[in-house]
Write a structure and sequence with these properties.
With 86 residues, the chain is mainly α. It is 53% helix and 0% strand.
Length: 86
């Protein structure tokens, strides 16, 4: 299963998404109200436990965690730097 699919499944199972089919991978999870600050912490926990990564404080920014595609790209970059694959 690719990273985008894993992230999408986590988001749609753990947060209220009224219509998962209409949630695009590029949509801002914060702007849509899918996640709030506590939700961001849940996403970080998912990333760390699922992909065995450590999310540093300075990496907790919308550019890394605000959409399904941004989360997946962030994970893939971290895994590549670590020498793993999703």
């Amino acid at each position: 299963m690719d990273t985008v699919t894993r992230v999408r499944e986590f988001v749609t199972r753990n947060f209220f998404v009224s219509d998962a089919a209409s949630l695009t991978d590029a949509a801002s999870l914060l702007d849509l109200g899918v996640v709030d600050s506590t939700g961001v912490l849940e996403i970080i926990g998912f990333v760390e436990s699922t992909f065995a990564l450590s999310v540093e404080d300075d990496e907790i920014v919308p550019a890394n965690l605000d959409s399904i595609e941004r989360i997946a790209a962030y994970v893939d970059r971290k895994l590549a730097a670590k020498g793993d694959s999703a």
